[in-house]
Specification:
about 140 residues; mainly alpha; Four Helix Bundle (Hemerythrin (Met), subunit A); about 80% helix; binds protoporphyrin IX containing FE
């Protein structure tokens, strides 16, 4: 009987080890960068939805700086979806992803410049562009 329990315990431990090795997806480096920019993006979008408040400009600037920092770190990474493709498609998807992310970096730099110039109308336009780039980017490059 003792032997039987020992076998059960060993089998359970083996399953646990296998679970942590092959089980739930770990966050990819890109998913980590994306998650790190998400809170700043959400509060900025929320603020602009209800009309930006000029008194909060410094806060908006630091939120854009956070998003920009993580966008810059993201540009060198490869979407998990690209890693599931054959070499040629992988290369082509990675190139399109890099170009799209570079475009967003440019938009973020323009958004930052508009905020620094206290041009909230231009800032709203850049933020709207970023929102479109984000949805398009997720549609094209994010795994289901
Ligand atoms: C401010 C803009 C953006 C925000 C706030 C944002 C936010 C997010 C969030 C929250 C995730 C899920 C992370 C997770 O799975 O834990 C994600 C995933 C992802 N995003 Fe974004 N995103 C933005 C822009 C973009 C752009 C412009 C692109 C492409 C050019 C992009 C490509 C991806 C990809 C490929 C993933 C899946 C992660 C992976 O493949 O490893 N995102 N994003």
């Amino acid at each position: 009987m003792t032997h039987y329990f020992k076998t059960i315990i060993l089998l359970s431990l083996a399953c646990l080890t296998a679970g942590s090795t092959f089980g739930e997806d770990e966050d990819t480096p890109l998913a980590k960068e994306m998650s790190a920019m998400n809170a700043a993006y959400r509060s900025l979008s929320k603020a602009f939805r209800s009309g930006p408040n000029p008194d909060q400009r410094a806060e908006y600037i630091s939120q854009v700086e956070i998003i920009l920092e993580h966008a810059k770190a993201s540009v060198e990474l490869v979407p998990a979806l690209a890693n599931t493709l054959a070499t040629e498609e992988k290369t082509s998807m990675t190139a399109s992803y890099t170009a799209a992310m570079q475009k967003s970096i440019q938009t973020l730099e323009q958004l930052l410049a508009a905020l620094k110039a206290e041009d909230f109308a231009a800032a709203s336009e850049q933020l709207a562009q970023l929102k479109e780039q984000k949805s398009a980017g997720h549609q094209r490059f994010q795994e289901d």
